[in-house]
Design a protein that fits this description.
alpha+beta; 34% helix; 27% strand; globular
């Protein structure tokens, strides 16, 4: 289960001094289902909104992945208290932890690695996952409840059109004792919330361009768009979402089949 936030860009109102809404969503990456959401008025409030979202979810046995904003000790504790595992991205907002993980990968024996190559959309992406379970260089590791693994993902993207290569290194901490191959897959699956949900809401439902802003209009539309996207994905004809939407407008039978009447 991936947790991430998305700003409803057009929901601001300068005249009334209303900030754009920010929606934190819990997303089942394999079944492509939105399991719950919380609304805040700015991105920094994700730290307080995520525990509230976790409170209403049944996540026992799940792996919960969150980006760097959610890399907080209390959030890790909340996830473990519900008998789930966490996979948290570590960036400079946790400077001490970030530097210790870098040092660990420089000085500690790597327990296992896994390399995955993906080709598509004019790009070749190589992702190498390295795993360390010896946490001797991580200070105050007891503050991160049940911390068991640190993970490094080295990604290299080659663009066939521009012939340019981009490299990136990301670090993660997890309570799970798993293999490098499994972590490689889980880190990649986290991005389903960006590619299969947030991107689709913008491209197929025009959420970024929308100026719905009165009362709860923007948030209500966000919920309806997510519901519609889930129903469209269940439609047996594997056409683009935009085509299925158009066909549903033009044909009552298709629309009824999508809705399930």
């Amino acid at each position: 289960m991936a947790i991430d936030g998305k700003r409803l860009r057009g929901s601001y109102d300068h005249i009334k001094e209303v900030k754009a809404k920010h929606v934190i969503t819990a997303y089942a990456t394999q079944s492509h289902l939105c399991l719950g959401q919380k609304v805040t008025d700015q991105k920094s409030n994700e730290i307080t909104a995520i525990p509230e979202l976790l409170e209403i979810l049944a996540i026992k046995g799940c792996m919960v992945s969150i980006d760097a904003m959610g890399c907080q000790k209390n959030i890790a504790k909340d996830i473990r208290s519900k008998q789930a595992d966490y996979l948290l991205a570590v960036k400079e907002n946790q400077k001490g932890l970030y530097q210790q993980i870098e040092k660990a990968f420089d000085q500690t024996t790597i327990d296992s690695t896994n390399t995955d190559i993906n080709v598509g959309h004019g790009r070749v992406e190589t992702r190498k996952c390295s795993l360390i379970i010896d946490l001797c260089l991580i200070e105050k590791k007891q503050d991160w409840v049940d911390l068991s693994s640190i993970v490094r993902i080295e990604s290299e993207r080659y663009n066939k059109t521009t012939t340019q290569t981009n490299k990136e290194v990301r670090y993660y901490i997890s309570s799970a004792s798993d293999t490098a191959k499994s972590f490689n897959q889980k880190v990649r699956s986290h991005w389903a919330i960006e590619n299969n949900l947030h991107w689709m809401l913008d491209v197929s439902f025009g959420e970024d361009r929308s100026r719905r802003r009165k009362d709860n209009h923007a948030v209500n539309y966000n919920i309806l768009a997510k519901t519609a996207l889930t129903l469209i994905r269940q439609y047996p004809n594997k056409m683009p979402v935009s085509h299925i939407k158009l066909n549903a407008i033009l044909c009552n039978k298709i629309r009824e089949k999508i809705i399930g009447f």
